[in-house]
Amino acid sequence: MAGNIALPLQEFIASLDNTSLPKILQVCSGVYFQGSIYEISGSEVCFSTGDLIKVIGIELQSVSCEDVTNNEKFELPVTHTGLFKVVPEKMPYTSVEEMLSLRPVGLDDSLPFTFTSHSKVTFGSLTLGTGKALTVLSIKKREGEEDMVRCHVKGQTEASAEVCIPLSSRGEFSECESEESYTLKEIMASPCLRSRRFRFVKTTKCERILVLSPVYQVQAIMNMRKNILRFPSSLEVDVVDVTDVCKDANFVTPLNLTEVLSQPDKSFPVVAEILEEPESRSFFKCAWLPGLVKSSNLILHKKGTTPMVLMSSLKGRKTQQYFLVSQQYSGRFRRRPREFNSVYEVYVASTQTHSLTVSVTRNCEEVEEEGLPGLSVGERLQIVDCTRMELPSESNKGEKQSVEALLCHRLQEPDDEEDDEEDEDEEKDKQEEAKEEVLLPLYMQGHFVEVLGENKKYKLCDLGKEFSLPLDVKVVSRDTDLETDPLVGFSCLRIEGALLEPSIQASFTDKPDHCFHLLPQWLSLSVSFTKDALPWPRDQFPKCFTEKVSEMTDTFFYEFHKKGNSDEAPPPRPPKRDLSSSNLVKKKSKSTKKSSKSKKNKDKSVPTEKLNDLTLNHKKRPPAPLPPEGTNDEPPPLMPRKCSAADITSKAKPNTYVKINQPLKRDHLCDVAADVESDHDYETVDETLVAVVKTAQENVMFY
């Protein structure tokens, strides 16, 4: 394409492919679209006459369809599944060679095809009348001679014959409509097909003749613009190709961090300018993050791969914190026992730790119907294997349920009094014989803590080699290279996992020796390499200190686990139980509770039991037992109730049913006790009970 020929932007972009990029275009004339500034997909694009545009990428977005009859335009997506047929051209071809050269696709791919002649044509001894159809079968190439076209022709009596026509044969030829159909993707992939006209196949709009034009999303950079521009190729702008003239034009090339990793090693160290800041929703919570602002400079020292581990503090009163720690961290750690809140967590830990032993930290009541054993605080359980256990059936006829369970050995505490070696050996033998097997269903809730048998200090790199993750640790000696070690002070840190991250070692220009890691997978940042000089003498690189601990957000923690544990199975559910069986379990539990309470109440004194019978909770109190016959003991006299001043001055009528308390003689009490057949069913008074009541009244009055 000549450099001084101006073309519409859409026509020029349609003639390109990604292999011919980049191209430098100059705007010749611009028609402003929706104002003086193009606001497209959040990118501000402003074209003026004379601007230079460096096209670095094109991507097909849609297809523009124009009806040639009324100039109506509409767009179809590239994924449109409809088919199109080529509409034959109305203008006749002057020669067979011209007609073959303008086929919509390659000649070999478009065979056979049919054409007609508008006039009588004579080929050697064969003469064809007007409108006779010929089908091209193949092209015969002959060295040193003119190529021939092998055609098939049908006569009036259905007789057929083959004839060879020279390519230079002249006349008025028109192609016939082909039965071949194409998709939008096939049409857009062929420059020859894009130059033809089409119509829909098997639709109500099949008579409409359409001109199809591709609409691309253009990715470009402009002079003095530091971000990538994205705009459609359908903008009404005329451009000129000036690639050869403006080879030395200074265009800023924006790079994301992944593209920075692909740069050669000789490009580092380099001063880079930040073009686009990180997103507000960042995974990092570091001190250097606020410094990554637009138009500021960074020193990119080198690229590489950094082994790291993710640590988290335990949940508690304080907010949980997360740290990404480089394995170059030189502090020392000591293992901490892990805590588990279910048997399933113990099972998962046992798959990662050989001969795991745990201690019970909270009592568990035995529920025989659910297969839950009783556990006491302090009991030690050694995990053996994961197996299956059968739950007791709900009825004699019912089938037993089988669930997954953890097979454990209940360990006994050794006797401290025996110090001799022989006694210790005997004690070990006894413990081996006395190991009790316990089956814990995986769905069982419980509280356990890991039992550790050593108190050794480890480096961070050694922990990953000797133990599987996750692992609970505590920092016992800080990293002396750090001014403030953020890991010190936590009672327990959990190493969640290890990761090997491609990283870029960077620093700010005001502190070139204080470096940190930029992780392209977790940080979105756009930079451009500059030609600024490095802030140190040439070939005298400073001794750099690299940050080893970076605080992360909880979003990073969740995304990390989402990537690593996408196929992790959920913990098992407890088996379903019938309501009838659950009611039986409740009744049994209630009866056992009542029996246990009655056993505890047996230790109480007799007067307390009799005082309990006087409570108002009973609607009808059982009658007091009759005094035994032959006893001459007289009951103690009842003290008269003291009348208050309110009772004396009250004008209310006395109760005729209840007699006023008066001092009773002993013989009257005997008469009352003996009058069993009276009209009123009064209860007899037990002598012991009367004595207890009297004592209680005196105690209350004394208090």
Automatic annotation (TrEMBL):
Acidic residues composition bias: residue spans: 414-427
Ranges of residues in domain CABIT: 21-251, 268-508
Highest taxon listed in the record's lineage: Eukaryota
Biased composition (Basic and acidic residues): 603-612
Residue ranges crossing the lipid bilayer per the database entry: none
Amino acid composition bias (Basic residues), ranges on this chain: 585-602
Database matches in Pfam families: CABIT
Regions annotated as coiled coil: none
GO cellular component assignments: cytoplasm; nucleus
Pro residues composition bias: residue spans: 623-638
Region ranges (Disordered): 411-435, 562-638
GO BP term, example: T cell receptor signaling pathway
Record-stated family: Belongs to the themis family.
PANTHER family, A to Z: CABIT DOMAIN-CONTAINING PROTEIN, PROTEIN THEMIS2
Designated name of the protein: Thymocyte selection associated family member 2
Species for this entry: Poecilia reticulata (Guppy)
